[in-house]
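Entry 14. Ran structure prediction on the chain below.
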Amino acid sequence: MKNTDAPILAFDCGTTSVRAIVFASDATTLGVAQQEFAQHFPQPGWVEHDAVEIWSAALACARSALAAAKLSARDIAAIGITNQRETAVVWDRATGQPIAGAIVWQDRRTAPLMAKLRADGHEARVRALTGLRLDPYFSASKIAWILDHAPVVDGRSARTRAERGELAAGTIDSWMLWNLTGGRVHATDASNASRTMLAAIGEVAGGCAWSDELCELFRVPRALLGEIVDSAGMLGESDAALLGAAIPITGIAGDQQAALFGQRCLELGAAKCTFGTGCFLLANAGNRAITPPEGLLTTVAWRIDGRTTFAVEGSVFVGGSAVQWLRDGLQFIARASDVNALAASVPDSGGVVVVPALAGLGAPWWDADARGAVLGLTRGSTKAHIARATLEGIAHQVADLVASVSAGGVPIDALRVDGGAAASDLLMQIQADFCGIPVDRPRVLETTAVGAALLARRGIVGSSADLGAMDAVERRFVATLSAPSRASQRLRWKRAVDAARAFGSPAQISLEAQ
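Output, structure tokens:
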């Protein structure tokens, strides 16, 4: 039997890169490896990944992380997995090969389908069953699109093959679990299942179960889907040939739920926001699937020992990727980290407002047609003003989420933050100013991977390990902006959002063209 105090190997499969981290029982990082993978944009609004590349990168990182830690697979107690959510993969059960590119959570190609379902009156029923809203963000319509458009094989369409049980589908956690176990396990944990829009949550078995009604609505054959399992427990065992020895896989959660667990948001109302490619705010909602506040979602936070904890969630589609846009699209900066010095070189944005709706607007607006906007430009506007306004645009979006959660009956007294962009002192101070509440940044920013490790250790020992480093706040940012100034800036932001939404609205364009 493995030593339960032995290190944990955590896989963090993000949107732009994969990391493998070996954690000691006290949360010390013993070895880490990271590898980026390609982003594919076949058409405007389309985003795809090569699932095989993700798996290859994950395996290479695991081997490198173990080597860096000077450990072998036999020294590892368990594996934890956390992943970008909603990204959909469909693969051949016999060959283990994807039948098409993985459609990423950011992808908007199924927006017309969602608009039709809304027009046909399905929004309320879907929201009641899933806690979600009809939006191309979620996995169901992505899976259906792949089945309708993948190449015909031996005269049989992908949909026919799916109905015959020849194909499997899932989010990246399912894909990782399948490959790690050599195709022996096809499953997903409750937190990821709740993001597919194919699972009902609340008063159902285990708090989360596949719904025949939803599968029929989205035309996704039930035979594609794996078993829904707990987020912690014995979920499978890695193929010994991959890393040199079999390792128990005992923890899985979607990246934002893993970060919530890693931030120790275990009490009702405790909230965190992860600043990554997007920004994701989750607040612990306890053991009931509450009706979410307007514009937000209810989701499964985790399921352990058959007991489900829920969360209220708001998702910002473009967070750190707005800084990537400054770097790669506008070429204002050479490195993403350079944005801080550029933005800090001016005392304010000079009246410039950036609405970073580069992939539509997420919560609380849920407007797939909104387009990014830079407003308030004058002859005195500079790159520095636009850079600062971009950081402010990120913070405004998160402030919208905090306000919506609090207005919905889950008051947030302080916000715990993590993710790469949370390292920016300037952004975190702006965030505290716009929210009007303290922002707490922990010593360990990569709480997503730590959450996966915590769940994995919970899965082998039956109780949360004491990772004391996670409780330590490295810095608390306190609001310094006066209430009138905050109100003024928030009002300008709202006006800018209205303009960005009106500009992208097909209905508005059609009306004006008449």
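The chain is about 35% helix and 20% strand. Will compare against last week's run tomorrow.
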